[in-house]
Amino acid sequence: MPDVVPPGRVITSQLITYRPPVVVAHGTLTSNSSPITSSTEVTVITTSSATLTAGRAYRFEFTGLIQHATASLVDLCYLRLRRGSNNASIRDIRSVVVANRATASRNIGVTLSVTCTPATTITDTVILTASWDTGSTATFTVAATSSTPALLTVWDVGPASDMPGLGTF
After folding, report:
1. What's the pLDDT tens digit per position in 84-140?
2. Residue 104 in contact with residue 71, Cβ under 8 Å?
3. Residue 33: count of CB within 10 angstroms of its CB
4. Where does 26-142 have alpha helices with state H?
5. What's the longest Cα–Cα distance across the chain?
6. Closest CA to 156 of 25, 2, 12
7. Domain limits of the chain?
8. How confident is the model at residue 13 (pLDDT cuts 50, 70, 90)?
9. How confident is the prediction for the chain on average, in pLDDT?
10. What are the angstrom distances between the C-alpha of 66 and each of 61, 90, 110?
11. Residue 1 pLDDT > 50, yes or no?
């Protein structure tokens, strides 16, 4: 059922509750992450706990800065969204190109968004992890301060049936 009220119909509590887009979970990083120096994933941001309902579509958004410490190098940082309780994968966001020219530790602005739906209703946190991609050698950091935070937000964007072909997690 779409999230609209046809003319002449009654607004139900369900339509008021699920009027998208609605933020259902949010996490903020206000200081630099731990160094990312291997293919071992580092937890960067954890959201608040939320109930993600089967049949709803959710957009996971990350906005932040990634840097690496080596001058004159282009390298790949691998990002992944996971569930907090069991570390199950929600989505592999894959590689983000991080490039420095002659100066080391330059920040690259990154905005990522993925939309999918849970196979069953779950209540959990969402975590963003980062690691080296295959062949990487850089030391990455997700850079953040209180005035330039990194943000991870989960939005309820409506019925999954309105978005055919969505992946599940």
Report:
1. 999 899 998 877 888 777 777 888 899 999 999 999 999 999 999 999 887 778 889
2. yes
3. 21
4. none
5. 64
6. 25
7. 22-162
8. low
9. 88
10. 15, 21, 7
11. no
Alpha helices, DSSP H, located in the chain: 13-17
Phi-psi category of 165—alpha, beta or left, where left has phi over 0 and alpha has psi -120 to 50?
left
Kindly report the CATH class assigned to 22-162. mainly beta
Q: What is the rounded distance in angstroms from the CA atom of residue 105 to the CA atom of residue 25?
A: 30
Q: Residues near 19 by Cβ (< 8 Å), separated by ≥ 6? A: 3
| Dihedral sign from CA coordinates of 114, 167, 49, 131 | negative
pTM, to two decimals: 0.84
Sign of the four-CA dihedral 70, 143, 40, 23: negative
Question: Which is it for the CA torsion 40, 46, 49, 51, positive or negative?
Answer: negative
Report the run of H or E that residue 81 belongs to, with start and end. strand 73-83
Question: What b-and-e string marks burial along 143-160, b requiring 16 or more CB atoms within 10 Å of the CB?
Answer: bbeeeebbbbbbbbbbbb
Give the rounded percent of residues in the chain with a pLDDT score beyond 90: 65
Nearest to 22 by CA among 46, 55, 56: 56
pLDDT band at 168 (very low <50, low <70, confident <90, very high): very high
